[in-house]
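**Protein fold record**
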Amino acid sequence: MRQVRAAGRLLRALAHIAGGIWTILTLFPRLGQPAKEARVQVWAMAMLKLVGIELAVRGTPAAGGPVLLVANHLSWLDIVVLHASRYCRFVSKADIKHWPLVGTLAGGAGTLYIERESRRDAHRVVHHMAERLKLGEVLAVFPEGTTADGVTLKPFHANLLQAAISTEAPVQPIALRFVDADTGLTSFAPRYIDDDSIFVSIWETLCVRRLRAEVVFGEPQYCRGRDRRTWAADLRAEIERLLREGR
């Protein structure tokens, strides 16, 4: 029964992805940015429902930009969860734009890409992030740079915070957690780290009878004279606190 349920969810998800790609290719060129953002959020909310994932949001998402969202990173599922909670333009690794299906969806959602190994490219992305913040947009980054195990946070990279510092934009910390809704315990089914297979991770996620994605929005912070390394450490500590409160 577990595998039958997962197979049904997978088929529904693939159909929903196909519908999203069709919308991006045919409808998005004629839409303004607010309409695109609304459709991305509605699509993400529908995706979670189709695959049996409940969404629980605590705290108050920023009503509008400019703001930089900073979250811990657990899974390939994080981007869908955050889009369902509040539309944002992600900064993601450049590899994603070459992934089948996912690359089209990410591009349609307005993702900014970065070559992580290139310091020069980081400067370019910070410049583009600053431009977007000046336009009043909502951006989002995972400062760990990669997914973690969900138990401890990796160190936060501080480079991308420079965009918020140079534009005097606030940063809103966000804590992400996946929970088995039947037991209330942390679920590691969506985990995708190190040598984990993304296909196994997707299948394990679809097999969970009731999975809940918990998103906790903290209070927006301003730089207030901190350098980016100090601010990154403070944001990491705040996200750790939000995660402890949620357990």
Observations:
- The chain has one domain: 2-246.
- Helices lie at 2-26, 33-50, 78-85, 102-108, 119-134, 162-167, 198-207, 228-246.
- The mean pLDDT is 89.
